[in-house]
C-alpha cells in the first residue's frame, strides 16, 4: 500500500485514505450497490432466468464451483448450466434458494472489486421442510462493464469438502 495520502472533505469532515482506496463516504455508497447486485443476481439464479443471470457476468467469465468437474467459461455455458439445474429440480421436486451474507468488499487500485462472502444454499424438497443444503464461501472479482458491475471470476468453496 502506498504511503501517499489523499484528503477528501465530506460534510465538513476530512477523511484521509491511502491513494487508490475509497474514502469512507464513497465506500458507504458502493457497499449497498454491491449488496443489491448480489441480491438481484441470486434472485435471477433461483428463478432460473438463465440468460439474465448469465448477463451479470462478463463474456469471458470463469466460474469455478466444486459441484462441476471443471470451471465453466463464458456466459453461454453459464446459461446452459442454469437450464440443466432447472430441469433437475423439476424432476426432483426440490427448490433451491441462495442467501448471500457477511459480504467483505475490497476495492482494488485497478478499479476492480474483490469480494468474499458466505453463500448458504437452502433446499426445500417437494412439500417438505426447508433445510441448509450447503454452506459455501464465494469469492468474486467484479468489474464495471457497459455501466454495470459484472463478475469476471468466481470461485466457490464448500465447507463440507474441507
From TrEMBL:
It comes from the Bacteria. InterPro entries: NTF2-like_dom_sf, SnoaL-like. Transmembrane segments: none annotated. Residues 33-154 form the SnoaL-like domain. It holds the Pfam family SnoaL_4. This is Nuclear transport factor 2 family protein. It comes from Streptomyces pulveraceus.
